[in-house]
Design brief:
Chains A, B: InterPro entries: Ser/Thr_deHydtase_PyrdxlP-BS, TrpB-like_PALP. Two copies of one chain form a homodimer. Chain A has 14 helices and ten strands. Chain A has helices spanning about 5-15, 50-60, 65, 80-90, 105-110, 125-135, 145-165, 180-190, 205-215, 220-225, 240-245, 255-270, 275-285, 305-315; strands at about 25-30, 35-40, 70-75, 95-100, 115-120, 140, 170-175, 195-200, 250-255, 295-300. In chain A, the strands form two sheets. Chain A has a six-stranded mixed sheet, sandwiched between helices. In chain A, strands 5-4-3-6 form a four-stranded parallel sheet, with helices on both faces. In chain A, a hairpin with an 8-residue loop joins strand 1 and strand 2. The first copy, chain A, is globular and about 55 Å long. At the A-B interface, helix 12 and helix 14 of A face helix 12 and helix 14 of B.
Chain lengths: ~325, ~325
């Protein structure tokens, strides 16, 4: 299996430079002084998540005549918005398959980009997307199971390496594994001294179990769906798992209470609105004895319902 | 009266470059397409506000032996934290005078920097600070009435000009006027085509009235204190007013409801936690018919009590 390389990630960075926000590293001065902390605020991207990087890289790599036929994808939310946004920027049609239980805030935000949203039952999204590819002739841009998507997400790691070359630890959420695969690949190549941690909810810790077992372990959708971190309910593909085995040193798992606490900490101390999935890496930093030295936590997304954020802040 | 120049602001930018976050311009794609909007998120600075720029420039300009005697200031909050933070970075003592009615979140955050906080009655803070200067031999770093502070805040405008040279309108909150003076000076010099708007709460619209009258009009503290925007209750000095007369084209005033709505919009759409004072410029953009073309709103601070943010989000 051919894995994504640092050259692929470098090329992605050049390809998407004018389409995404070059997020700064924000010093989190209130954190553990032995593990000085920086936040990589990908919740500040136009669609509120790092997913825009992979989407623009995947669309940008397509030949113009292929891209003109439009794109199709499936996603629980942030990748959907990212593909919708990138398709609009390129002026091509997009069909987005979303599970029926996707938070309304994400369905609305996706539709706002002027794309076709097709809702489907749990576990049906990949097959429905395949049908749409047949019907429309569009190109499938999967949420993580594609080298161009992984390379795009890896630009997060490239920027960390550029801004903090002496980084000792990087913490990144794991779901389907596109972000963790890309960031891990970039950090391995540019900051070989750093330890790369994946972070998962305890209630969706399929990757922790898979990496320990040395092969993909199936957690049924209903089991993964228990976590509040709705962006972390996917499971790696063969492609992302092969990356994760190579580039992730350790997986930290965090409780639902720890995730909520991290959402609150980000709002109160960093002035960032993070969705639960976007806060798990900070929860991992708080929970685990990561190595001393400069540490970066990737705040991967910010699309949280206002009611939930209000509840967490009032709590 | 000698006014701050673009050269002073350029020098400040070099002086503080390693101390502050180089905040990006965040595209706010959901805004009016005829007035494409970017946010300058100064709430992401280490102390949660632009004030760190003026504080580091003022301390950095002092001769080392003068600085060693320590610094004194008075502030309703964000400037206090900024001076405390900068004094700690320079390893010098700081005495901070704060009004008794300052939100607890700001008092605590200031004390956390290991400085001496002296609480005082409304309207007493300047005289108490003067006493502390006498007692300690420290240097007064006022919140806005000083050229080095104005020049430091002006670096916000310099960065806007660097990142979006074709800007058509810049909206910035006005309180004591340090930020507006500095940003206006930088924009006038580097983007002469742009219109510079100050934004004030209707309940603290002393500067709107003063600029219309052509001289400083006194609004009693109790009158200015009615607004929820607790960072905008100060009134310009002769020095900042002279700048504002020269560099502010128009003042927009906004209601308390409009300020709350902007806090909510920033959290929901931009994933930024802004305090009411930090959201007024967006409220001004929503309210007024600013010119067509690229527009920048300065989100000046993020230090809001969680309970208030929860209330606004639940509202």
């Amino acid at each position: 299996m051919k894995l994504v390389t640092i050259d692929d990630i470098d090329a992605a960075a050049r390809r998407i430079a004018t389409d995404v926000v070059r997020t700064p590293l924000l010093p989190a001065r209130w954190a553990d002084p032995h593990r000085p902390l920086w936040l990589k605020p990908e919740n500040l991207q136009p669609v509120g998540a790092f997913k825009i990087r992979g989407a623009f890289n995947a669309l940008g790599t397509l030949a113009a005549d292929v891209r003109a036929a439009g794109v199709v994808t499936y996603s629980s939310g942030n990748h959907a918005q990212a593909v919708a946004y990138a398709a609009a920027a390129y002026g091509v049609a997009a069909h987005i398959v979303m599970p029926e239980d996707t938070p309304a805030v994400k369905v609305q935000a996706t539709r706002a980009h002027g794309v076709h949203v097709v809702l489907c039952g749990a576990g049906q999204r990949e097959s429905v997307a395949a049908e749409l590819v047949q019907q429309t002739g569009g190109v499938l841009v999967p949420p993580f199971d594609h080298p161009d998507v992984i390379a795009g997400q890896g630009t997060v790691g490239l920027e960390i390496a550029q801004d903090l070359a002496e980084v000792a630890a990087v913490l990144v959420p794991i779901s389907g594994g596109g972000l963790a695969s890309g960031v891990g690949t970039a950090i391995r190549a540019r900051c070989p001294q750093a330890t790369v941690f994946g972070v998962e909810p305890e209630l969706a810790a399929d990757t922790a179990e898979s990496l320990a077992a040395g092969h993909l372990v199936d957690w049924p959708v209903a089991r993964r769906n228990r976590t509040i971190a709705d962006g972390l309910r996917a499971t790696p593909s063969e492609l992302t798992f092969a990356h994760l085995q190579r580039v992730i040193d350790e997986v930290i798992t965090v409780s639902e209470v720890e995730i909520r606490s991290a959402v609150r900490e980000l709002a109160e101390r960093a002035h960032l609105v993070a969705e639960p999935s976007g806060a798990v890496a900070l929860a991992g930093y708080r929970k685990a004895a990561t190595p001393p030295g400069p540490t970066v936590v990737v705040v991967s997304g910010g699309n949280i319902a206002s009611g939930l954020l209000a509840e967490i802040l009032a709590g």
